[in-house]
Design goal:
Blueprint lengths: L1 E6 L2 E4 L4 E9 L6 E7 L6 E7 L5 E3 L7 E6 L4 E6 L8 E8 L10 E2 L3 E6 L1
Parallel strand pairs: 2-11
Antiparallel strand pairs: 1-3, 3-8, 4-5, 4-9, 5-6, 7-8, 9-10, 9-11
Length: 121
């Protein structure tokens, strides 16, 4: 099992920045990739960004490209999401997720509890 704990959410104004963190513990050696998802008010959960743990290769949703940066610290087993130029439409609960395999067409194996990000205009 892998446990994921997010932190760093909060409230900011449009154009502001926040950095989310996700600390992984347990059988972290089994992780192939980690990522961030979000669920806004009245919306379905959507993909934001992911990173392959060993190679560092990243993918982003079009809506956040150029504004968000995903990174990881392997020594600390911690995932980050640096969010810049935030917009009101970025308001959501942000979830950290981890998977053990490279098939991104199936669901993630582990999820965090979520952290709220609110962007006011």
């Amino acid at each position: 099992q892998v446990q994921l704990v997010e932190s760093g959410g909060g409230s900011v104004q449009t154009g502001g920045s926040l950095r989310l963190s996700c600390a992984a513990s347990g059988r972290t050696f089994s992780i192939y990739a980690m990522g961030w998802f979000r669920q806004g008010p009245g919306k379905e959960r959507e993909f934001v960004a992911r990173i392959r743990w060993i190679s560092g290769i990243t993918d982003y949703a079009d809506s956040v490209k150029g504004r968000f940066t995903i990174s990881r610290d392997s020594a600390k087993n911690t995932l980050y999401l640096q969010m810049n130029k935030l917009k009101p439409e970025d308001t959501a609960v942000y979830y950290c997720a981890a998977r053990r395999n490279n098939n991104f067409n199936i669901g993630n194996d582990y999820w965090g509890q979520g952290t709220q990000v609110t962007v006011s205009s």
